[in-house]
């Protein structure tokens, strides 16, 4: 049966705008596109240790068998959540099936009808989708602009206000002034919620994330960590008070009405967290590579192209879907996996090449990649 005509037209519009999305084919190019920042997804030791853990504990179960509130709350969940809470110095930890599920569950369940959500205009789609499902009123503030945020806060006295931001934004790779944001939220008694998807495994001595590295974690209402990036596996966790965990277990629909993760998936999360405390050299190497990337782009005169970032995400603005796709293809033809980010994923005119830095990238690869970019652009 064919698609309805109006849906076919939407696809045709994407083709005409040169913005039609397609699933990429696996390649063996040098990785500058994945979120596997410290290489944990390819870690043979994590793979073997997870297998050994399951064998030693006689866990031979392939699936969770049901939602966690029915039959899926297997023993590995409690062990992993206890470890994660201690690792992040949090009262509690609640694992969700994905970062998308965590944001959907949190923002659809916590803010109530008479509450207000103030969110950074560049917040991730999963945050925005969760906000749409909330009964609270929501307003965006200009990106990392706390004067604009304070102006909005002052419009809603005697109201529960949730402030939402990210420690590293996925498309720009930049960060807000978190100390200033915490002080502002405390000044007005707001509930600060921070998505740390792109900082786990990247910032901190053991990859604990930017909030904890800055010693702000005891002043945050909720932190949302995602495992599919720096941790190299799947799932996510919401960190906060024990009351917050109890509330989410009772009211977060994306948690309640879904089958739990398998024992193997949760064991992989647990082992990956344990390895963060052991494989600190990979985190140091990642930080070194970020410095090398920034230094080299400056030396080659490429700095004006790039959004300012000290994270593993480095974005070079190349306006126009056709232009950025062509430039990405030139780099791919030379053996480097760099992806173009097209509108409407980013605003029209803000199309970009998104470079993801990893601990396993060599300095030679970074230098060669940026030299090619310079040659193609200039």
Outline the fold blueprint.
Layout lengths: L4 H12 L13 E2 L12 H13 L18 H13 L4 E5 L2 H11 L6 E5 L4 H8 L4 E5 L4 H8 L7 E6 L11 H10 L3 E5 L14 H4 L8 E5 L9 E5 L1 H10 L1 H4 L6 H14 L3 H20 L13 E5 L3 H13 L2 E2 L1 E3 L10 E5 L6 H15 L1
Parallel strand pairs: 1-10, 3-4, 3-5, 5-6, 6-7
Antiparallel strand pairs: 2-8, 7-8, 9-12, 11-12
* β-strand number: 12
Strand percentage: 5-15%
- Low-confidence residue ranges: none
Instruction: Name the structural class.
Output: alpha/beta
Fraction of residues in helix? 40-55%
The major pleated sheet works out as: 7 strands, mixed
Mind explaining what this structure looks like?
This protein is of the alpha/beta class and 378 residues long. The chain has 14 helices and 12 strands. A 7-stranded mixed β-sheet has the order 2-8-7-6-5-3-4, with helices on both faces. A 3-stranded antiparallel β-sheet has the order 9-12-11, with helices on one face. Strands 1-10 form a two-stranded parallel ribbon. Helix 5 links the parallel strand 3 and strand 4. Helix 12 runs parallel beside helix 14. The longest helix is centred in the last third of the chain and has 20 residues. The protein is globular. The model has no long low-confidence stretch (mean pLDDT 96).
What labels describe this entry?
alpha/beta, single chain, seven-stranded mixed beta sheet, 14% strand, three-stranded antiparallel beta sheet, 378 residues
């Amino acid at each position: 049966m064919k698609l309805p005509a109006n849906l076919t037209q939407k696809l045709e519009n994407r083709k005409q705008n040169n913005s039609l999305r397609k699933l990429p084919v696996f390649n063996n190019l040098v990785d500058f596109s994945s979120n596997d920042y410290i290489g944990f997804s390819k870690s043979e030791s994590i793979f073997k240790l997870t297998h050994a853990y399951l064998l030693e504990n006689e866990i031979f179960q392939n699936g969770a068998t049901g939602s966690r509130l029915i039959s899926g709350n297997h023993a590995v969940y409690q062990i992993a959540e206890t470890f994660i809470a201690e690792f992040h110095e949090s009262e509690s930890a609640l694992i969700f099936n994905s970062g998308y599920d965590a944001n959907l569950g949190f923002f659809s369940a916590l803010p109530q009808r008479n509450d207000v959500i103030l969110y950074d205009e560049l917040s991730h789609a999963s945050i925005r989708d969760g906000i749409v499902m909330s009964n609270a009123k929501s307003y965006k503030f200009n990106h990392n602009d706390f004067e604009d945020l304070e102006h909005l806060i002052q419009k809603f006295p005697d109201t529960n206000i949730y402030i939402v931001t990210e420690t590293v934004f996925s498309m720009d790779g930049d960060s807000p002034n978190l100390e200033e944001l915490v002080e502002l939220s405390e000044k007005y008694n707001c509930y600060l919620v921070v998505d740390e998807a792109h900082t786990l495994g990247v910032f901190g001595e053991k990859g604990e994330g930017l909030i904890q590295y800055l010693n702000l974690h005891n002043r945050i209402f909720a932190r949302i960590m995602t495992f599919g990036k720096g941790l190299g596996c799947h799932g996510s966790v919401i960190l906060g008070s024990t009351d917050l965990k109890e509330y989410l277990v009772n009211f977060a629909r994306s948690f309640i009405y879904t089958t739990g993760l398998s024992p193997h998936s949760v064991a992989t999360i647990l082992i990956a967290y344990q390895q963060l405390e052991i494989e600190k050299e990979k985190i140091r190497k990642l930080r070194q590579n970020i410095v090398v990337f920034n230094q080299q782009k400056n030396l080659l005169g490429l700095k004006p192209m790039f959004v300012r970032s000290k994270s593993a995400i480095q974005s070079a603005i190349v306006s126009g879907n056709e232009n950025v796709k062509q430039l990405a293809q030139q780099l791919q033809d030379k053996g480097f996996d760099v992806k173009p980010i097209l509108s409407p994923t980013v605003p029209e005119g803000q199309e970009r090449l998104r470079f993801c830095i990893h601990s396993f990238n060599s300095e030679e690869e970074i230098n060669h990649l940026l030299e090619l970019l310079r040659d193609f652009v200039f």
